[in-house]
Amino acid sequence: MSRASDDVCVDPDAYVSSDEDGTSARTRGAWTRDARRVAGEDVDARRGTIARFEALLEETFPNGAIASVRWDRVVMKTQRDARFGMVGTHAERRAAFEAYARRRRDDMANARAPNARVKRRRDPEAEARALRAREAEAMRSTREAERVSARRKDALFADAADAAFSAMCAERVKTYTRSYEESFDRDLAGDPLGRDDVSKLRGGESRARELYAEHVARVERTLKTEFEKLARKMIDIKVVEAVSDDSALTEAQDDGHATIDSVFDGAISYRRAAEEDFELIDHVLFAFVSDEDKVKIWNACSVEILKRHGVKIKSGE
């Protein structure tokens, strides 16, 4: 590097004017013109680059969508386009995007505002009518919602009352042989929880009778099924004991018209079982199943079980 001349000072503040810095006016003017030309070219180029970038944004997000899109989505959608990379830095791209999005939002807002004002000026009475219609519709919707809520509440209370009455029947009525009047006076009246108040039911006493009939039907099915299981168990035991005597089995098989009382010396007779078999008498089902049903179930099971041993019988009871 060449050393500065001894008569030239490199400190720019040492000169009062540019005439004393050792440069000529012609040289200074040429430099200024060149700088301005280059600066102008840079500004024009930047404007063109920004314009192309904005065109890319509008193509990617048309119809004003760019006004509400996020920057990360813009990057994802446009980064493969050459116009995206023409803008210098990432910060410049984002600044250009935000400025363009802001202008588009302003343009859209300005475009909507005059139309709204014109519409209001065009027919204010129509808007008033529409407002009254909306208010009336809101009132109708409110009343309908209240009616629906009231119906649901009533249905909920009615279902709860039905469930309470059915639960009371299940707790207090264990047989199916009593009528509604007899069971109500004997078992249901005076419930400490107030479940015997049939006025709470939807339909009053008629609904109470329906619920009682449903309960009795369930009890009857359950008791008969369980008594049949008990009868089969005990008859099987008695038959096994009886057929252990071969002579009794042969005699019973030869007598095709034997009655239930005579087969196996009455081993499977319900009447004798009811009098002598304490396991049957002491069973809880013995008290709840009616006598007529007990005889029918017992004899039907007896006939079926004896047929498996080759004994044909006819019921004498």
The sequence of SSEs as H and E is HHHHHHHHEHHHHE
Helix/strand/pairing category: mainly alpha
Cα Rg: 53 Å
End-to-end Cα distance, whole Å, is 141 Å
The share of residues in extended strands comes to: under 5%
Figure out the total of helices.
Answer: 12
Summed over residues and divided by their number, the pLDDT gives a mean of 77
Outline: elongated
E-strand count: 2
Query: Order of strands across the widest beta sheet?
Result: 1-2
How many distinct domains?
Answer: 3
Largest sheet: 2 strands, parallel
**What share of residues is helical?**
55-70%
Uncertain ranges? 1-12, 14-18
Organism: Ostreococcus tauri (Marine green alga)
Region (Disordered): 1-28
Keywords: Repeat
GO cellular component, one term: nucleus
